[in-house]
Amino acid sequence: MPDKNYSKAEIAQAATNVRKHILKLAIERGGCYLTQACSSAEIVTSLYMNILNLGPSLGCPDAQPFPGVPSPTNMDYPKGSLYNGEQTPDRDRLFVSCCHYASVIYCALVEAGRLSPAAIDKFNVDGWNMEMIGAEHSPGFENTAGSLGQTVSIAAGTAHAYKLKGNTGRIFCMLSDGELEEGQDWECFQAAAFYKLDNFVVIADINHQQLEGWTKDVMNIEPLEERMKAFGWEVTRINGHDLDALEQAGKMPHPGKPLMILCDTNPAQGIPLLEPMVPKHFVRIPAGRRAEFEAFCAQM
């Protein structure tokens, strides 16, 4: 459990707030990964406000200047993992593979009281750590996630180390369905099952879209339940907007096996104005519809 108890009503409102924040960013900044916010808002707010066992944030609540890409001579940069609390043997850890969901992570941190609302003003501003594509210096991120497939492997390796050390904390990794076309993911899934990493949980946003369209049309990845079970995983498939289902999935026992939580989601959830525009990897609000979206945002 998190360091504060939140009601389902508070988590639901937080998810709405996440969508509203990111819709504002899309309107103000000329575009954003808005459909990912629509699909994952309940997933990420549930992780931070209900499912994960995290200690209090150790990160600065304000946006931080970022001097540039870390190097052996430039290691004094803000660490994104600090916002998830101290890494003790009994605490959980979250790895975010879908690094273009950074705005969702930042806004969920705001809703969970781990980041200042004013920090969002520095989103995607040069010279600050609030980047559109998250990396190890971005709030909530443990590591740089590209290329796709690397983060789930890092997370599984961490889970293996925790098992060897006897740590009781769980390792979570969030990814999106387009990534499941990457071969490295499946190599990781095979290894995680082989080593019986029952402290490892992957939660996947199955919003059925990717850069070039619907996943079923670009490279079909279904049937995911059967594929993951064949790889030796415990699997549950849920409505990713259902807070009760998310909570129960986070508690699901999976002795001797890693757990895959497949969350079917809608990339226009909460913002029906987007429905004619999906699938859409990156949303730019058309000039002719800007007033319509602004009015909708004001009413959220």
A few lines on this structure:
By secondary structure, the chain is of the alpha/beta class. It has helices spanning 8-29, 34-51, 102-111, 150-165, 183-194, 215-218, 224-230, 243-250, 290-299, and strands at residues 93-96, 171-176, 200-206, 209-210, 213-214, 234-239, 259-264.
Q: Low-confidence stretches at least 5 residues in length (pLDDT < 50)?
A: none
The strand line-up of the biggest sheet is: 1-2-3-7-6
How far apart lie the N and C ends?
Answer: 29 Å
Number of distinct helices: 9
Q: Structural class of the secondary structure composition?
A: alpha/beta
Strand coverage percent: 5-15%
Counting DSSP E segments of at least 2 residues, the number of strands comes to 7
Outline the biggest β-sheet: 5 strands, parallel
Helix share, percent: 25-40%
Could you say which overall geometry the principal axes of the C-alpha atoms support?
globular
Average of per-residue pLDDT values: 94
Order of helices and strands: HHEHHEHEEEHHEHEH
Radius of gyration, in angstroms, nearest whole number: 18 Å
